[in-house]
Every structure is written in structure tokens, then in C-alpha cells.
Specification:
single chain, alpha+beta, Lipocalin, 3-stranded antiparallel β-sheet, 21% helix, elongated
Length: 102
């Protein structure tokens, strides 16, 4: 599943129990019962699974004007786990997640 698909599923899950209200409603992600998972291609031969263990997500849902609703997700990059020690060490190395300018 693509990361955006995961986020969309999380947002939908938060909305299922929403009540109609004139005020925008705030929903916090229950991180103890949620996961952010992903997979990446390993040179086209296989897919490597991964997970982020530390994150927060919050949805501000406006029932009357859904287009103004806002989903905020903060992921701690250092909490990545690819279930492979050498790959984890590489991903957590200084400068790797800071982009091309370090």
C-alpha cells in the first residue's frame, strides 16, 4: 500500500465515529493501535517492508466545509525499522534523511 493510501485510511478511520457538528472536530490518532507501514522495491527483485514506530497524527475535520479539513502527520524518521540491521543503520546514519544538502 502506498504511504498516501495509508494516510487516507487513517483519516477515514478517524471520521467513522464523527458526529455532525457546526464546529470543526479534532481527532487525535491512537498511536498505540495504529501503524505506518510501507514497502520499497529492492532493485525490482523483491519488496522490503518497513515501519515507523514513532509518529503522531491529527485530523481537524470541518463537516460543513470538508475541503477546509486538515490532516497533520509527524513521523520521527529515526524510528524507521526495515527489519534488517545493516539497512536500519544506513538509514539512521547522520545526513541520510536530511536530503542532498545534509
Amino acid at each position: 500500500m502506498k504511504p498516501l493510501g495509508v494516510i487516507a485510511c487513517m483519516a477515514l478511520a478517524m471520521l467513522v465515529s464523527a458526529e455532525t457538528s457546526a464546529e470543526p472536530q479534532r481527532f487525535a490518532m491512537d498511536t498505540s493501535h495504529s501503524r505506518i507501514v510501507f514497502s520499497i522495491s529492492h532493485f525490482g527483485y523483491s519488496m522490503l517492508p518497513g515501519i515507523f514506530g514513532e509518529f503522531d497524527a491529527e485530523l481537524l475535520y470541518d463537516h460543513e466545509t470538508p475541503s477546509t479539513s486538515h490532516l497533520s502527520v509527524t513521523i520521527q524518521a529515526a524510528s524507521v525499522d526495515m527489519f534488517h540491521e545493516r539497512l536500519n543503520n544506513h538509514l539512521k546514519a547522520d545526513g541520510f534523511s536530511n536530503g542532498p544538502n545534509g
